[in-house]
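Researcher: Please predict.
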Amino acid sequence: MDLKGVIDQMTINDEIAVLSDLDTYLSYSSNRPDNHHFVKTDNAFTRKARLLQAIRRWQTHAESGSFTRKGITYYHPNLAKDGQISGCNFLHHEIFEYAKYRTKNKKAYETIGEDRLFNNFLSSQPMAFNLFFPLMEIITCDEGKRRLANVVSSLVDKNDILNIEQITEVGIEFIPDYYNHCLNDRTAMDAFFRYVTKNGKKGIIAIETKYTDILGTNQASDPSLAVKTATEREGISHVFTKEGKERIAAGKIKLSQVYRNLLLTEAVRLYEQLDESLSIIISPQENTSNEKDEKQLSDILNEKYKYKFQVISLESFVEAIIAEFPDEDIFQKFHHRYLDFRTAEWLLKYSPKKF
Protein backbone atom coordinates (compact mmCIF):
# COMPACT_ATOMS: atom_id res chain seq x y z
CA MET A 1 0.00 0.00 0.00
CA ASP A 2 1.40 3.43 -0.98
CA LEU A 3 1.58 6.39 1.40
CA LYS A 4 -1.76 7.82 0.22
CA GLY A 5 -3.40 4.44 0.81
CA VAL A 6 -1.93 4.22 4.31
CA ILE A 7 -3.19 7.71 5.21
CA ASP A 8 -6.56 6.94 3.67
CA GLN A 9 -6.93 3.75 5.73
CA MET A 10 -5.89 5.60 8.88
CA THR A 11 -8.65 8.13 8.22
CA ILE A 12 -11.24 5.37 7.91
CA ASN A 13 -9.94 3.69 11.07
CA ASP A 14 -10.23 7.00 12.93
CA GLU A 15 -13.82 7.40 11.71
CA ILE A 16 -14.76 3.91 12.82
CA ALA A 17 -13.10 4.41 16.22
CA VAL A 18 -15.41 7.29 17.16
CA LEU A 19 -18.66 5.84 15.82
CA SER A 20 -21.38 4.81 18.22
CA ASP A 21 -23.70 1.86 17.83
CA LEU A 22 -25.59 1.52 14.59
CA ASP A 23 -28.90 2.65 16.07
CA THR A 24 -27.44 6.13 16.62
CA TYR A 25 -27.77 6.66 12.87
CA LEU A 26 -31.17 5.05 12.33
CA SER A 27 -34.68 6.47 12.14
CA TYR A 28 -37.26 6.70 14.93
CA SER A 29 -40.52 8.51 15.69
CA SER A 30 -41.95 10.49 18.58
CA ASN A 31 -44.51 7.82 19.45
CA ARG A 32 -41.82 5.11 19.65
CA PRO A 33 -38.57 6.96 20.44
CA ASP A 34 -36.71 3.82 21.54
CA ASN A 35 -37.51 1.91 18.34
CA HIS A 36 -34.60 2.80 16.07
CA HIS A 37 -35.09 1.20 12.68
CA PHE A 38 -34.13 1.13 9.02
CA VAL A 39 -36.54 2.77 6.59
CA LYS A 40 -38.67 -0.12 5.35
CA THR A 41 -38.88 1.07 1.75
CA ASP A 42 -35.10 1.37 1.32
CA ASN A 43 -33.37 -1.15 -0.91
CA ALA A 44 -29.91 -2.41 0.06
CA PHE A 45 -28.04 0.46 -1.60
CA THR A 46 -30.33 3.18 -0.27
CA ARG A 47 -30.05 1.71 3.21
CA LYS A 48 -26.26 1.92 3.04
CA ALA A 49 -26.27 5.41 1.53
CA ARG A 50 -28.79 6.70 4.08
CA LEU A 51 -26.56 5.36 6.85
CA LEU A 52 -23.50 7.02 5.30
CA GLN A 53 -25.28 10.36 5.06
CA ALA A 54 -26.48 10.04 8.66
CA ILE A 55 -22.82 9.63 9.62
CA ARG A 56 -21.80 12.60 7.46
CA ARG A 57 -24.53 14.76 9.04
CA TRP A 58 -23.38 13.70 12.51
CA GLN A 59 -19.78 14.60 11.60
CA THR A 60 -20.84 18.18 10.84
CA HIS A 61 -22.28 18.45 14.40
CA ALA A 62 -25.63 19.48 12.89
CA GLU A 63 -28.66 18.56 14.95
CA SER A 64 -30.82 15.79 13.49
CA GLY A 65 -33.82 17.01 11.53
CA SER A 66 -37.41 15.79 11.47
CA PHE A 67 -40.83 16.23 9.95
CA THR A 68 -44.30 15.86 11.43
CA ARG A 69 -47.22 14.02 9.89
CA LYS A 70 -50.62 13.41 11.51
CA GLY A 71 -49.30 14.44 14.90
CA ILE A 72 -46.27 12.12 14.84
CA THR A 73 -42.75 13.49 14.42
CA TYR A 74 -40.37 11.35 12.39
CA TYR A 75 -36.60 11.63 12.82
CA HIS A 76 -34.30 10.55 10.00
CA PRO A 77 -30.63 11.10 10.90
CA ASN A 78 -29.74 11.91 7.29
CA LEU A 79 -31.83 15.06 7.82
CA ALA A 80 -30.27 18.14 9.40
CA LYS A 81 -31.88 20.99 11.28
CA ASP A 82 -31.24 24.65 10.36
CA GLY A 83 -28.98 23.81 7.42
CA GLN A 84 -30.03 27.06 5.78
CA ILE A 85 -28.17 28.79 8.61
CA SER A 86 -25.19 26.49 9.15
CA GLY A 87 -24.51 25.41 5.57
CA CYS A 88 -23.82 21.90 6.87
CA ASN A 89 -25.03 20.21 3.68
CA PHE A 90 -22.30 21.77 1.52
CA LEU A 91 -18.63 21.00 1.10
CA HIS A 92 -17.48 24.62 0.99
CA HIS A 93 -18.88 27.96 2.11
CA GLU A 94 -18.86 29.27 -1.47
CA ILE A 95 -21.19 26.45 -2.53
CA PHE A 96 -23.45 27.33 0.40
CA GLU A 97 -23.47 30.99 -0.64
CA TYR A 98 -24.39 30.02 -4.19
CA ALA A 99 -27.22 27.81 -2.90
CA LYS A 100 -28.55 30.72 -0.85
CA TYR A 101 -28.30 32.99 -3.89
CA ARG A 102 -30.29 30.53 -6.02
CA THR A 103 -33.06 30.14 -3.45
CA LYS A 104 -33.27 33.88 -2.81
CA ASN A 105 -33.55 34.55 -6.54
CA LYS A 106 -35.65 31.51 -7.38
CA LYS A 107 -37.88 32.02 -10.40
CA ALA A 108 -41.54 31.08 -10.17
CA TYR A 109 -41.13 28.09 -12.48
CA GLU A 110 -37.97 26.68 -10.87
CA THR A 111 -38.13 23.50 -8.79
CA ILE A 112 -35.39 24.08 -6.21
CA GLY A 113 -36.64 22.63 -2.92
CA GLU A 114 -35.16 24.64 -0.07
CA ASP A 115 -35.61 22.07 2.68
CA ARG A 116 -34.04 19.19 0.76
CA LEU A 117 -31.32 21.48 -0.58
CA PHE A 118 -30.21 22.69 2.85
CA ASN A 119 -31.23 19.85 5.17
CA ASN A 120 -31.41 16.50 3.35
CA PHE A 121 -27.96 14.92 3.17
CA LEU A 122 -29.34 12.09 1.04
CA SER A 123 -30.84 14.29 -1.66
CA SER A 124 -29.29 14.46 -5.11
CA GLN A 125 -30.05 18.18 -5.36
CA PRO A 126 -27.39 19.38 -2.87
CA MET A 127 -25.12 16.67 -4.30
CA ALA A 128 -25.38 18.39 -7.69
CA PHE A 129 -24.47 21.73 -6.12
CA ASN A 130 -21.48 20.14 -4.34
CA LEU A 131 -20.22 18.55 -7.56
CA PHE A 132 -20.92 21.12 -10.24
CA PHE A 133 -20.33 24.44 -8.49
CA PRO A 134 -16.57 23.73 -8.24
CA LEU A 135 -16.63 22.98 -11.98
CA MET A 136 -18.23 26.38 -12.55
CA GLU A 137 -15.20 27.87 -10.84
CA ILE A 138 -12.74 25.74 -12.82
CA ILE A 139 -13.92 27.01 -16.22
CA THR A 140 -13.35 30.67 -15.37
CA CYS A 141 -10.04 30.30 -17.24
CA ASP A 142 -9.32 28.89 -20.71
CA GLU A 143 -7.11 26.13 -19.35
CA GLY A 144 -9.94 24.96 -17.12
CA LYS A 145 -12.33 24.98 -20.08
CA ARG A 146 -9.98 22.74 -22.07
CA ARG A 147 -9.16 20.38 -19.21
CA LEU A 148 -12.80 19.87 -18.29
CA ALA A 149 -13.52 19.22 -21.97
CA ASN A 150 -10.91 16.47 -21.87
CA VAL A 151 -12.68 14.85 -18.92
CA VAL A 152 -16.12 15.08 -20.47
CA SER A 153 -14.91 13.80 -23.84
CA SER A 154 -13.24 10.79 -22.24
CA LEU A 155 -16.57 9.80 -20.70
CA VAL A 156 -19.22 10.64 -23.31
CA ASP A 157 -17.41 11.02 -26.63
CA LYS A 158 -15.21 7.96 -26.96
CA ASN A 159 -16.04 7.70 -30.69
CA ASP A 160 -15.18 11.37 -31.35
CA ILE A 161 -18.66 12.26 -32.55
CA LEU A 162 -18.76 15.59 -30.71
CA ASN A 163 -15.08 16.69 -30.81
CA ILE A 164 -15.46 18.93 -27.77
CA GLU A 165 -12.71 21.52 -27.42
CA GLN A 166 -13.92 23.63 -24.48
CA ILE A 167 -16.63 23.51 -21.85
CA THR A 168 -17.82 27.11 -21.95
CA GLU A 169 -20.51 27.01 -19.27
CA VAL A 170 -21.55 24.83 -16.35
CA GLY A 171 -25.03 25.30 -14.95
CA ILE A 172 -27.09 23.86 -12.10
CA GLU A 173 -30.88 23.40 -11.80
CA PHE A 174 -31.81 24.75 -15.22
CA ILE A 175 -35.30 25.25 -16.60
CA PRO A 176 -35.19 27.56 -19.63
CA ASP A 177 -37.34 30.68 -19.39
CA TYR A 178 -38.76 29.65 -22.77
CA TYR A 179 -39.91 26.30 -21.34
CA ASN A 180 -43.35 26.77 -22.91
CA HIS A 181 -41.61 26.36 -26.28
CA CYS A 182 -40.08 23.08 -25.10
CA LEU A 183 -42.41 20.71 -23.23
CA ASN A 184 -44.41 23.41 -21.42
CA ASP A 185 -43.79 21.73 -18.06
CA ARG A 186 -41.21 22.10 -15.32
CA THR A 187 -38.84 19.37 -16.46
CA ALA A 188 -35.40 20.55 -15.35
CA MET A 189 -31.77 19.77 -15.99
CA ASP A 190 -30.00 19.05 -12.69
CA ALA A 191 -26.88 20.39 -14.37
CA PHE A 192 -25.56 21.05 -17.86
CA PHE A 193 -22.41 21.65 -19.85
CA ARG A 194 -22.36 24.01 -22.82
CA TYR A 195 -19.44 23.42 -25.14
CA VAL A 196 -17.75 24.41 -28.39
CA THR A 197 -16.10 21.97 -30.76
CA LYS A 198 -12.82 22.11 -32.61
CA ASN A 199 -14.83 23.18 -35.67
CA GLY A 200 -16.55 26.03 -33.85
CA LYS A 201 -19.88 24.26 -33.41
CA LYS A 202 -21.89 24.62 -30.22
CA GLY A 203 -23.72 22.06 -28.10
CA ILE A 204 -25.24 21.24 -24.75
CA ILE A 205 -25.03 18.20 -22.48
CA ALA A 206 -27.94 17.88 -20.06
CA ILE A 207 -27.23 16.02 -16.83
CA GLU A 208 -29.60 14.20 -14.51
CA THR A 209 -27.97 13.30 -11.19
CA LYS A 210 -29.30 10.49 -9.03
CA TYR A 211 -27.83 9.38 -5.70
CA THR A 212 -30.34 6.91 -4.31
CA ASP A 213 -33.23 8.46 -6.22
CA ILE A 214 -35.46 6.64 -8.66
CA LEU A 215 -36.29 8.34 -11.94
CA GLY A 216 -39.79 9.76 -11.90
CA THR A 217 -42.22 7.26 -13.41
CA ASN A 218 -45.14 9.63 -14.01
CA GLN A 219 -45.55 11.57 -17.20
CA ALA A 220 -46.52 15.25 -17.22
CA SER A 221 -50.07 16.15 -16.23
CA ASP A 222 -50.58 17.15 -19.86
CA PRO A 223 -48.27 14.91 -21.90
CA SER A 224 -49.66 15.92 -25.29
CA LEU A 225 -46.86 18.34 -26.19
CA ALA A 226 -44.18 15.86 -25.13
CA VAL A 227 -45.84 13.13 -27.21
CA LYS A 228 -46.08 15.44 -30.21
CA THR A 229 -42.45 16.50 -29.74
CA ALA A 230 -41.28 12.87 -29.74
CA THR A 231 -43.43 11.68 -32.63
CA GLU A 232 -43.91 14.66 -34.94
CA ARG A 233 -41.61 17.60 -34.22
CA GLU A 234 -39.17 18.24 -37.02
CA GLY A 235 -35.59 18.10 -35.83
CA ILE A 236 -36.41 15.82 -32.89
CA SER A 237 -38.70 12.94 -33.88
CA HIS A 238 -36.07 11.45 -36.19
CA VAL A 239 -33.96 10.33 -33.23
CA PHE A 240 -36.57 7.67 -32.38
CA THR A 241 -37.29 4.47 -34.25
CA LYS A 242 -40.57 4.14 -36.15
CA GLU A 243 -41.73 1.47 -33.72
CA GLY A 244 -40.76 3.65 -30.77
CA LYS A 245 -42.82 6.58 -32.08
CA GLU A 246 -45.78 4.31 -32.69
CA ARG A 247 -45.63 3.00 -29.12
CA ILE A 248 -45.38 6.53 -27.72
CA ALA A 249 -48.30 7.74 -29.84
CA ALA A 250 -50.40 4.76 -28.77
CA GLY A 251 -49.66 5.39 -25.09
CA LYS A 252 -47.76 2.12 -24.73
CA ILE A 253 -44.69 4.07 -23.64
CA LYS A 254 -45.38 6.72 -21.04
CA LEU A 255 -43.10 9.73 -21.29
CA SER A 256 -41.68 9.53 -17.79
CA GLN A 257 -38.74 11.56 -16.51
CA VAL A 258 -35.99 9.89 -18.51
CA TYR A 259 -37.82 10.57 -21.79
CA ARG A 260 -38.71 14.15 -20.88
CA ASN A 261 -35.10 14.87 -19.98
CA LEU A 262 -34.00 13.85 -23.46
CA LEU A 263 -36.86 15.70 -25.14
CA LEU A 264 -36.11 18.88 -23.17
CA THR A 265 -32.48 18.70 -24.24
CA GLU A 266 -33.41 18.30 -27.89
CA ALA A 267 -35.94 21.15 -27.65
CA VAL A 268 -33.28 23.43 -26.13
CA ARG A 269 -30.97 22.53 -29.01
CA LEU A 270 -33.61 23.58 -31.54
CA TYR A 271 -34.68 26.75 -29.74
CA GLU A 272 -31.12 27.98 -29.24
CA GLN A 273 -30.05 26.79 -32.70
CA LEU A 274 -27.27 24.62 -31.32
CA ASP A 275 -25.48 22.06 -33.44
CA GLU A 276 -25.55 19.11 -31.04
CA SER A 277 -27.01 17.86 -27.78
CA LEU A 278 -27.09 14.82 -25.57
CA SER A 279 -28.66 13.78 -22.28
CA ILE A 280 -26.80 11.83 -19.61
CA ILE A 281 -27.62 10.29 -16.25
CA ILE A 282 -24.97 10.20 -13.54
CA SER A 283 -25.61 7.91 -10.58
CA PRO A 284 -23.67 5.51 -8.31
CA GLN A 285 -22.95 2.17 -9.91
CA GLU A 286 -24.89 0.38 -7.16
CA ASN A 287 -28.05 2.39 -7.86
CA THR A 288 -29.55 0.01 -10.39
CA SER A 289 -33.17 1.01 -9.79
CA ASN A 290 -33.41 2.96 -13.05
CA GLU A 291 -31.99 0.37 -15.43
CA LYS A 292 -35.37 -0.65 -16.91
CA ASP A 293 -36.32 2.90 -17.94
CA GLU A 294 -32.81 3.61 -19.18
CA LYS A 295 -32.75 0.50 -21.36
CA GLN A 296 -36.24 1.13 -22.73
CA LEU A 297 -35.25 4.62 -23.89
CA SER A 298 -32.00 3.42 -25.42
CA ASP A 299 -33.86 0.66 -27.27
CA ILE A 300 -36.17 3.07 -29.11
CA LEU A 301 -33.42 5.42 -30.28
CA ASN A 302 -32.25 5.02 -33.84
CA GLU A 303 -28.80 3.44 -33.95
CA LYS A 304 -27.28 6.64 -35.32
CA TYR A 305 -28.54 8.63 -32.33
CA LYS A 306 -28.01 6.25 -29.43
CA TYR A 307 -25.08 8.39 -28.29
CA LYS A 308 -27.62 11.10 -27.42
CA PHE A 309 -28.54 9.21 -24.26
CA GLN A 310 -25.86 7.82 -21.96
CA VAL A 311 -25.57 6.55 -18.41
CA ILE A 312 -22.33 7.21 -16.51
CA SER A 313 -21.48 6.01 -13.04
CA LEU A 314 -20.91 8.72 -10.46
CA GLU A 315 -17.72 6.90 -9.48
CA SER A 316 -16.22 7.08 -12.96
CA PHE A 317 -17.18 10.75 -13.33
CA VAL A 318 -15.67 11.78 -10.01
CA GLU A 319 -12.55 9.66 -10.52
CA ALA A 320 -11.98 11.27 -13.93
CA ILE A 321 -12.36 14.74 -12.40
CA ILE A 322 -9.91 13.88 -9.59
CA ALA A 323 -7.40 12.50 -12.08
CA GLU A 324 -7.54 15.68 -14.18
CA PHE A 325 -7.60 18.09 -11.22
CA PRO A 326 -5.61 16.32 -8.46
CA ASP A 327 -4.81 19.57 -6.67
CA GLU A 328 -8.48 20.49 -6.22
CA ASP A 329 -9.19 18.75 -2.92
CA ILE A 330 -12.90 19.60 -3.11
CA PHE A 331 -13.39 16.56 -5.36
CA GLN A 332 -11.67 14.23 -2.88
CA LYS A 333 -14.02 15.67 -0.27
CA PHE A 334 -16.94 14.94 -2.57
CA HIS A 335 -15.80 11.34 -2.99
CA HIS A 336 -15.46 10.95 0.77
CA ARG A 337 -18.87 12.50 1.39
CA TYR A 338 -20.88 10.47 -1.11
CA LEU A 339 -18.91 7.46 -2.33
CA ASP A 340 -16.68 6.20 0.48
CA PHE A 341 -19.02 3.65 2.02
CA ARG A 342 -16.46 1.83 4.16
CA THR A 343 -17.56 3.26 7.51
CA ALA A 344 -21.22 2.53 6.75
CA GLU A 345 -20.37 -0.98 5.58
CA TRP A 346 -18.35 -1.58 8.76
CA LEU A 347 -21.29 -0.52 10.94
CA LEU A 348 -23.71 -2.70 9.00
CA LYS A 349 -21.42 -5.69 9.31
CA TYR A 350 -19.99 -5.39 12.81
CA SER A 351 -22.45 -3.41 14.88
CA PRO A 352 -23.38 -5.57 17.91
CA LYS A 353 -27.05 -4.67 17.61
CA LYS A 354 -28.93 -6.61 14.93
CA PHE A 355 -32.02 -5.37 13.09
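Model: Residues 3-18 form the longest helix (16 residues).
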